[in-house]
Amino acid sequence: MRARDKVAMRALRATLSALDNAEAVPVDPADARSSAIEDSPVGAGATEAARRDLSEGDVRDIVRAEATERLDAAAQLTSPAHADRAAQLREEAAVLLRFLDGSEAA
């Protein structure tokens, strides 16, 4: 962000969101039903749930999926009118793939 690399910022923000979503605990549909207000949890943190812990493999898979998603979208943008957007998507994928290359080599 300090380098003001907009391509990298877009790719990293979206990937951090994907990682954050992957840590979310699945909601039980039975718990999602509305009930009487007097049955609602009370107090600070009463409705909080622990986040899932992702392994390094999980994180790599999510980052790889984000890169693949961008490359697939860029491949579908064949019109000359979309050439700039396709190039941006390829650049974002390259940013993510550089992180993978560094983590898999370690």
Task: Please tell me about this protein's structure.
By secondary structure, the chain is mainly α. The chain is 62% helix and 0% strand. It has 4 helices and no strands. It has helices spanning 6-23, 29-32, 56-76, 83-105. The longest helix is centred in the last third of the chain and has 23 residues, at 83-105. It is elongated. It starts with 5 loop residues before the first helix and ends with a helix.
Layout: helices, strands, pairs:
Layout: H1 6-23, H2 29-32, H3 56-76, H4 83-105
Keywords:
single chain; mainly alpha; 4 helices
How many strand elements? 0
Compute the number of helices: 4
Report how far the terminal alpha carbons are from each other: 24 Å
> What structural class results from the helix and strand content?
mainly alpha
Shape: elongated
Largest sheet: none
Q: Radius of gyration, Cα only, in angstroms?
A: 19 Å
> How much helical structure, as a percent, in the residues?
55-70%
Which percent band covers the strand fraction? under 5%
Low-confidence spans: pLDDT under 50, at least 5 residues? none
Mean pLDDT: 84
Give the H and E element order.
HHHH
What's this, in brief?
The chain has 106 residues and is mainly alpha-helical. It is 62% helix and 0% strand.
